[in-house]
Amino acid sequence: MILKDKVAIITGSARGIGKSIATLFARQGAKVVISDIADEIGEKTAQEIRELGGEAIYLHCDVSDPEDVERLIRSTVESFGRLDILVNNAGITRDSLLVRMRDEDWNRVISINLTGTFNCTRAAAKVMMRQRDGCIINIASVAGIMGNVGQVNYSASKAGVIGITKSAARELAGRGVRVNAIAPGFIMTEMTAKLPEAERERILEMVPLGKPGTPEDVANVALFLASDAARYITGQVIRVDGGMVMG
To answer: Is 154 a residue of the active site?
Structure first.
């Protein structure tokens, strides 16, 4: 129970990696806030965690809307009295080759993945700075490090998330708030399951371990970063990618 009595918000946690992180945090004693725009699935996820003996609530939030984010943070503090951990996981893809990419596909990915991370980090930091304690974990991507064909918007957003991570870590360290990022590689989720078989095989050829990761692989690293075992780690980007990116 290494997160006993900690309060954690995980955005985009109705399913996939976010759900795995929320479930693991709850198993380790955290009070978790499931946050998403998929209300029915989000409520179901919170209920599943409660049935496992954990403590969880669901709060609707569109991370691209600053007012929605402020409500999320305020409601969390009203419900649990504090905020110890924020995991910025909410994200989308709208893949297309650069010359064919529509303005709306660029803008929507940036607004959710990058601006959403900014909105949530800014709002949570205000609470954590007053507490002089807190941990923020941003879910980036190896695409933000190495780029990816057909993902100019996604890669740009995740590179920006890494920039937010490093800058926020420097700004908030003096108030006892740590900020780190996780950069997953090829993780089996609903999002990656939609890829054509040939594309999945192409990606796997770049993975030295020769297999995709699981949401649990990412959740385990998030748990470490959220715990006191990582109390001297901030401003870092930890890749969970089977060796796809080295150096």
So the answer is: yes
